[in-house]
Amino acid sequence: MKTGRDYKFWFCTGSQDLYGDECLKKVAEHSKIMVAELNKSGMFPYEIVWKPTLLTNAMIRQTFNEANADENCAGVITWMHTFSPAKSWILGLQEYRKPLLHLHTQFNQEIPYDTIDMDFMNENQSAHGDREYGHIVTRMGIERKVVVGHWSDKKVQEKVASWMRTAVGIMESSHIRVMRVADNMRNVAVTEGDKVEAQIKFGWEIDAYPVNEIAEAVAAVSEADTNALVEEYYSKYQIILEGRDEKEFRQHVAVQAQIELGFERFLEEKNYQAIVTHFGDLGALKQLPGLAIQRLMEKGYGFGGEGDWKTAAMVRLMKIMAAGVKDAKGTSFMEDYTYNLVPGKEGILQAHMLEVCPTIADGPIGIKVNPLSMGDREDPARLVFTSKEGPAVATSLIDLGNRFRLIINEVDCKKVEKPMPKLPVATAFWTPQPDLYTGAEAWILAGGAHHTAFSYDLTAEQMGDWAAAMGIEAVYIDKDTTIRQFKNELKWNSVFYR
């Protein structure tokens, strides 16, 4: 999935001109070695670019403004090799507008006990140089990520690499445009929200189109193009007829192929990266988009059901953040459906009417054509599969009227105990942490939606860092959650974020 930019991260080292040329030569040498070794490690999803040592107010200000102006710069990593007076950083920090990481490290890993002298002490002052810098960033109230440890440590590198994905999510958030096909499902509260405030906070553009304008784009797709995509479907997926006439089955599949092509062409022409539909307002569309939406999500588009533009944007955002993850397991729109409350086997069956992304599939993917009790259209074709096992994160962005809240739940995905042969949709089954009862109660207390943006490839920390950068509330539901503490946190947050 392409973002359209070749992102890089700048590495900026702080010092001052009182140390003399010989010391500053070593500072530059050390930072160059660090950047070269970090890039050679293979740990980072994006390149780190070395920048000359920052010594003065003017140099710092210029560098930060150059970072602002460089579209390929997704963030700056700062490190104080020596003592860099923090007042020198004020103007640059005031004008800086991109993600910031403070790497609290030092060039040497161990104190050189046998040879250490005052020259070494004067040249290697990160332990207090970084504290001076950290003080001013805190005093100025600037959001940043702090990572502590030796730069060669794999755990430190993993933390920086993880933050890079969040930083790209922050940068790309302002490029997300959501196309609403018709409007929200009538009388549903959670899919509503302040679209103007969302654009102010996140940079998202959320626009509505009459459903028949989209239907015209679908109708314009040629029969030849439609048939070619149907052939691709038949070569890629298992065809599960279940007694239906093959010719009639293929006609239903062709409707979804035409929808996929029409929707994708419309999205590309209008420059949208996410889409929402509503089964109650389908206009001239012959079927509720099912297989078509699943395929679009697989290509990197965000989606939300029943007009849920917040979840559609979050799915797109999380797909961007997870792009290029090694051995990725997938990211999708999801919905809570029904519980298993058998003691020791508790969990939530996740699905949707049709639209679950096949990136999360485990094993073969089939195509079925089955009736849909909602939508008042012909039987739609959809991809069916079960999801992978393993840890994942489910998020819900909600509008509380005076602020946004991101709810982040760590979940454990499992296989269902038995097959469900009569359920013709893609499914996942998970147990929220710390357990179903606490997790579900905390989710409800926080006002979480029934729709989620879900990923195996991102962490709660990454999503929380994104929320912090956006200046919105984030609450975590994980192995450490207790209801008493969670209620108190919600109360405290209501004061802080009002």
From TrEMBL:
Biological pathway: Carbohydrate degradation; L-arabinose degradation via L-ribulose; D-xylulose 5-phosphate from L-arabinose (bacterial route): step 1/3
PANTHER family registered for this protein in UniProt: L-ARABINOSE ISOMERASE
Family note: Belongs to the arabinose isomerase family.
InterPro entries: Ara_Isoase_C, AraA_central, AraA_N, AraA_N_sf, Fuc/Ara_isomerase_C, Fucose_isomerase_N/cen_sf, Lara_isomerase
A GO cellular component annotation in the UniProt record: cytosol
EC number: 5.3.1.4
Residues given in the record as Mn(2+) binding sites: 306, 335, 352, 451
Catalytic reactions of this protein: beta-L-arabinopyranose = L-ribulose
Note describing how the cofactor binds: Binds 1 Mn(2+) ion per subunit.
Molecular functions per Gene Ontology: L-arabinose isomerase activity; manganese ion binding
Cited HAMAP family: Arabinose_Isome
All residue ranges annotated as the L-arabinose isomerase N-terminal domain in the record: 7-173
Domain L-arabinose isomerase central: 177-324
Cofactor: Mn(2+)
Protein name listed in UniProt: L-arabinose isomerase
Biological process (GO), any one: L-arabinose catabolic process to D-xylulose 5-phosphate
Domain L-arabinose isomerase C-terminal residue range list: 330-473
